Amino acid sequence: MNIKIIIVALLLLPASFCLAQDKFEISGQLSQAGKDMMVMLSYKNSEGKDTKDSALVKNGKFLISGTTAFGNKAYLTLMPVKKDTIRRVGQSDYQEFYLEKGMYKVTGTDSLAKASITGAQAQKDFLLWKSKSQALLAQFREITQRFTKVYYAKVKDTVTIKKIQAEARPVHAKIEAALDSFIFSHPDSYVALDLIASEKTAVIDPQVFGAYYNPLSKRVLASFTGQKLTAKFEKAKKISIGKTVDFTQTDDKGNEFKLSSLKGKYVLVDFWASWCVPCRAENPHLLKAYNQLKDKGFEIVGISLDETKAAWLNAVKHDGMPWIQVSDLKGFKSEIAVQYGISAIPQNFLIDPQGVIIAKNLRGEDVNEQLAKLIR
């Protein structure tokens, strides 16, 4: 054999093992699906890329096979082979499930949404979570629909709004309790991992988040979602209490501003945007605190996650914010937001005169009192 061929083969061999090649097979029976129908599978392939595959339904049966990696949420949709212009998106007949290596079975009649999907361990975990949460989530959705209707009415009924909010609180508390119970009892589950990623990462407090992250197994943390979660956690640690921070950004006058230029002062670094209603609602409280404490070595630096300068500056003017304002107008892709893993606002942190973070996410009507207790 040619030595060059052997060398090339040896060099290429490791590459073929870089990615998991987890084979799956989905066999389905939809006995009354009708003619000219197909099943579309939307899933992540072995490289973690969103992929689609399909199979015709013949004599009420279909078969789809392929490769994936780890366990990820996937979707099966039943649709006509020819585009049906009468059907609307809201009428899509689909069901979500968890796909990983192994054999899957779909059993139903004329609907995929109502079919049974059984398979590997991740799907078993998903069905267990659904059984524990489905009723509570349906109840909360119904409350949310009523709240939205009243809240956005031309004439707001504040009494009814408060009544619905009070009704929602215990239901929400039950959902959170069920969520935590499932997560903590399934540290080796791709479903628990996804629930943490989707429900527990909007604002990460490293001291609290560690209780969710640390028990997770190496197996699930090695997944695509697990790697993203780890990266997000590491970024959040950069702005945990006790950390020293500094950054450079362009201010509203086009000048370069460096956070460390305020060394010697207490500084509240506030992430906000003109389009963020909760952020704008906090501004009057921050203004009150600023006016009361600015002569005691206190400053605020607003970091706008806007993408248009006009919207940013108009909001600054409208809300009467006299403190330092900076932005690179890249939204959530802002260099500072990316650096510190900011994916939800409002968020803020308070640094002491040495540039060390001493408190986080101070807000509300009594924010001035909260700050006054910290500023010495």
Automatic annotation (TrEMBL):
Could you say which residues form the signal peptide?
1-20
**CDD domains recorded:** TlpA_like_family (cd02966)
Question: According to the lineage, what is the superkingdom?
Answer: Bacteria
Disulfide bond in keyword set: yes
Q: Which UniProt keywords apply?
A: Cytochrome c-type biogenesis, Disulfide bond, Redox-active center, Signal
Q: Which Gene3D superfamilies match?
A: Glutaredoxin
GO molecular function, a single term = oxidoreductase activity
Q: Where can this protein be found?
A: Cell envelope
Task: Please give the InterPro entries that the UniProt record associates with this protein.
Answer: AhpC/TSA (IPR000866), DUF4369 (IPR025380), Thioredoxin-like_sf (IPR036249), Thioredoxin_CS (IPR017937), Thioredoxin_domain (IPR013766), Thioredoxin_ResA/DsbE_sf (IPR050553)
Domain Thioredoxin: start-end pairs? 238-376
Name the GO cellular-component terms: cell envelope
Protein name listed in UniProt = Alkyl hydroperoxide reductase/ Thiol specific antioxidant/ Mal allergen
In its UniProt record, which GO terms are filed under biological process? cytochrome complex assembly
